[in-house]
Amino acid sequence: MAIIVVNREDTMIDYADDEQPLLPPPPRCVRDTGLEPALLAELAGKALLGAGKCHLSVLTGRLKLSINVLREVLDGLQRDQLVEVAWRGDSDVDVQYQLTGIGRQRATEWLERQPYAGPAPVPLDAWRAQLQRQAVQLPPVLAGDVAALFADDCLPPRIHELVGAAMHAGRSLCVYGPSGSGKSTLARKLGRLLQGVVAVPHAVAVGHAIVQLHDAAVHLAPPPLPGRPAGARGGDTRWQLCQRPVVQLGAELDAPALELRHDAAGGCYIAPPQLKACHGLLIVDDLGRQRMPAAALLNRLSALLDAGTDQLTLPGGQVFSVPCGAVLAFVTNLAPQQLLDGAALRRIGYKVALGPLPEAAYCSLLRQQCRARGIEADEAALAYLVGELHQGSGQPLLASLPREIVGRVAEFAGFAGTVPRLNPATLDQAWSSIFADGVA
Predict the structure, then answer these.
(1) Are 172 and 303 within one domain?
(2) What is the pLDDT of residue 92?
(3) Which domain range does residue 349 map to?
(4) Whether pLDDT at 2 is above 70
(5) Are residues 313 and 418 located together in one domain of the fold?
(6) Predicted local confidence at residue 22, as pLDDT
(7) What is the per-residue pLDDT for 315?
C-alpha cells in the first residue's frame, strides 16, 4: 500500500511559544529512559558490530541516546568484557569504543535473535502520555485560518463553515460530490489548517516488540524557530519535532494495511498509517473503491471515529491502544447513502457536499488560472465557454475544469510556438481534447 505524501510547502507553523510543544527532557541515566538495561546494551552492541571502532558521539547519533546514558551502558559492557576502549583523546567524551572478541560473538547472537539495530525506542506509556499532552497544547483551527486559506478558492461560504467547524472540533468529515468537483483538492488543503508541531518518536517499545513510527516521508521537519538553527531544540533525541502529519490513502487500501506490518529484515513492526497520522490528518480518498468494503473500513476505524483512539494487536495476542487524535477525512464521488447505512453515517461527524460552481465563481476561478499563466482573460471568450460549450453540452461548471482548460490552451500554444490566447477557437481546441462526445 502506498502512502501519498501531501505537499505542505505553504503550511504556516504557529508556535504558541518557542518551546511548544516541549520535547520530553533528555534522560540523565539508563533508568530515565524507561527501558530495560539489557535492551540498551544489545542496541549498543549491535551498533558497534556494524561499525567496528566507533566514536562516542557517532554512537549517540545512531542510538539517539544522550552521552550520559550511553556511557553508563558502555561502562556496563566494559565490566562484562564485551566492549573495550579503542582510542582515547584529551577529553572524557573524545573516545572510541570497539567490541572484544567475546563481545562480537555476543552481539552476533543478539542480532540473529532480534535484528532491530535502530534508534532506541521510547516506552509505550511515554508515547501515550506525550500524545495526551500534545492534544491540549496544539492550537485550534479558527475562522480566520479558514478565511485566509480558502480566500481564492471560489467555494460557497457554507463549505468553508462546514470544514472549518469539523477541523476546529477535530471531528471526521466526508467530502462527496461528482468527479472533478474539487473534493481531493479540498481535502489536501485541510492539512494546511493544522498549525503547531508535534513530537514523534523514532520507535516505540511495546513489551518485547519494537514499532517503528517515524517516517521521513510523512513526518516533515518544521522550519527552525526564530533565532535558532534547525535542530537546536534540545530534549530527548529519541523524539523528532515535526509538522503535523498529513497522510493520504487511495483505492489500493486493504485491511492488512491498517494493521502492524512485520519487517523481518529490520526486526521491528511498521506502524500503520493511522498511527503515523497522530495529531494530523488522515485522508481516505475514493471511499467505496478500496479493496475492503466501506462499511468494513469504518468498522475497523470505529475506535478512532468514536473515541479518538486506535487499537492494535501484536502476534501472540497482545492488544494495545493509543490515543491517536487524527482527523479523518473521507472523500468519495458516490452518494454516502449508497456506501453506508445510517448507523455508519452517524459516525462521520460532518458531511460536505460539493457540486458545480455558480457561474460567477467558475469564471473567477478561470480568471485566476489565466493570471497564473500570464494569459489575458478575455470576457467574451469566458462568455463563449460558459454559454456555448458548457450549456450546449450540458457539462456542469466543475472546479477542476478551469485549470484543465487554461492549461490545454497554453500547451497547444507552446506546441505551435504562439502566444496563448483565450478565444473561441483555442477554447474549442482545448475542450475537444478533454471531452469525448461530451464526456470527460
Answers:
(1) yes
(2) 83
(3) 4-23+123-353
(4) no
(5) no
(6) 74
(7) 86
76 and 141 in a common domain: no
Rounded mean pLDDT, 307-316: 92
Q: Do residues 297 and 398 share a domain? A: no
Q: 208, exposed or middle or buried, with CB in 10 Å at 0-12, 13-18, 19+?
A: exposed
CA 178 to each of CA 125, 182, 438: distance values in angstroms, whole numbers, following the listed order: 44, 9, 16
Three-state secondary structure readout of 91-131 = CCCCEEEEECHHHHHHHHHHHHHCCCCCCCCEEHHHHHHHH
Three-class SS state of 421: coil
Contact 277, 245 (CB under 8 A): yes
pLDDT 10s digits, 148-192? 999 888 899 999 999 999 999 999 999 999 999 999 999 999 999
Domain count, the chain: 3
Do the strands 239-243 and 309-313 form a parallel or antiparallel pair, or are they unpaired? Answer: unpaired
- Residues 63-93: pLDDT tens digits? 999 999 999 999 999 999 999 999 998 888 8
Q: pLDDT tens digits for 203-242?
A: 999 999 999 999 999 999 998 766 555 554 579 999 999 9
Residues 157 and 255 grouped into a single domain? yes
Q: How far is the CA of 392 from the CAs of 150, 167, 343, 387, 389, in angstroms?
A: 31, 39, 42, 7, 5
Task: Supply 401's cell numbers.
Answer: 475544469
382 shares a domain with 238: no
Q: Which helix (H) or strand (E) holds 355?
A: none
Measuring CA to CA, which residue among 72, 93, 64 is closest to residue 28?
Answer: 72
Same domain, 112 and 127: no
Inform me whether the pLDDT recorded for 9 exceeds 70. no
Sequence-ordered list of residues with C-beta below 8 angstroms from that of 399, at least 6 positions apart, any chain: 153, 154, 155, 180, 181, 182, 185, 354, 357, 362, 365
Q: Is residue 440 part of a domain?
A: no
**CATH code of the domain covering residue 76:** 1.10.10.10
**First vs last Cα of the chain: how many Å apart?**
28
In a domain, 31, yes or no: no
Burial class of residue 67 (count of CB atoms within 10 Å of its CB; 0-12, 13-18, 19+) = middle
C-alpha 220/C-alpha 214 separation (Å) is 10
Report if residue 320 sits inside a domain. yes
Percent pLDDT > 90 in the chain is: 87
CATH number for the domain harbouring residue 309: 3.40.50.300
pLDDT of residue 223: 83
Look-up of cell digits 497482545: 318
Choosing from 47, 82, 116, the residue where a domain stops is 116
- Whether omega for the bond prior to residue 21 falls within 30 degrees of 0, making it cis, is yes
Same domain? 381 vs 267 = no
